[in-house]
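Hi support team,

I'm opening this ticket because the web form for multi-chain structure prediction keeps timing out on my end. I have pasted the exact lines I submitted so you can reproduce it. The total is 288 residues across two entries, so I didn't expect it to be a heavy job. Is there a limit I'm missing, or should I split the entries? Thanks in advance, R.K.
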Amino acid sequence: MTQPTRQWSAEKLLLVVSVVAIVAGAAVGTSVGYAVHYSAPTTRAFYLFNSSLPFDEHTWGIPHDTFAPDRITVNKGDKVVIYYRNIEDTTEPHTFSMDTPYTFDAVVHAGQNETFPVATSVKGASDVVVQVNQTATITFTAHWAGVFRYYCAYHQPTMTGYLAVLG
Amino acid sequence: MQMPKGSAMFRWSAVVLLFITGLLDVYYGNFYAGFYENLWYAMGTIYIFTAAVIAANFEPRFAQPAVFGYAIFLFVLWATTAFATGVGLDTIAYLDKAIEALLVVNMALLIRSSRSPSLLR
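Hello R.K., no limit was hit. The queue was backed up. Here is the completed structure from your submission:
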């Protein structure tokens, strides 16, 4: 004696599959939320200055210029805004340059802050020149994880900093 | 004869939605995620594979509910992860999930039409 094959109706099947999928998805999603400490990409602003160490660069044979700060740490995906001020007490210009693969947009203001008129602006550049008493607003997105150099092309090797992008 | 036509229509619209969702997932993993990108690649690849399975009408009694469940699973997974971590809340993710929601409805209609009693002989 054979029993007739019983099969679920479409509604019952949809209901069961939905409930199982919702419970499983919520369980995994909640676990990920607890397990992973993650902060969503955000905009991070930094103020960057040039600095001079107290030694005679002619005697020592290397520039006394440095960046302050010389370490910038962000998360991958963050939008980075750097306000660079050339606070030299001489007439020395500096550059803000970055190693590949990073490029940036920069707006250079002809004064000590961003309210001054724009002197120059660049897009997708790997370096920008900032004259004494000028302010550059540099923006880019930290697409690549790793440690990347930012530097002044005129004052190597001392005027170098590192962007650390946590991936 | 009307149900098979409806069923075929839902099947092909499911294929299109699966393929678009798969491509969006891969695109998102490549350009946006910054957070478990490999997971988005895997999800996208699975969607594109399931598009082929649904298009071939391979084992529909198993494949259709599996795809339906997979889409709901990923939608809820995204919603809870987004709620817990704040990640994946951007235009591309919203678009991806809106299409995924359409896919869920499409799959439900496909399953209903495929399992219509008139087709069971």
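A quick check on our side: The mean pLDDT of chain A is 88. Let us know if the file doesn't open in your viewer.
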